[in-house]
Predict the structure of Tetratricopeptide repeat protein.
Amino acid sequence: MDLLEEYRRATMFFETGDSAGAARLLEPIVEAEPHNISVRQLLARAYFQTAQLGRAEEQLRAIIAHDPSDHYAHHVLGRTLERAGRFAEALPHLRLAAAMKQHADYTEALRRVETWVGRSGGRSS
């Protein structure tokens, strides 16, 4: 298997809206190259888009374990946890991402989750 060609195909699938197809192509690439952060990140995004939140979380946590300063991975992990209704768990990741990089999406997600956590008294869901 030509991993680079498969990655390119997966990227095309993802960009054209076939996140499930992209994930199927990316899974064996991550298995073959577990330290390839770009592939892992795209796989996490494909999982997020297809509501495979547990799988997205797994990939994002692997990225963060490799590079704790990856603000985008923290942001997407926070969004994944938010989408799963795990607001209190999402908050630290969203705060880190917003502190590391000024970005409107990061700020918006952080405010949204802070509001949810405030309403629930810190409880998840």
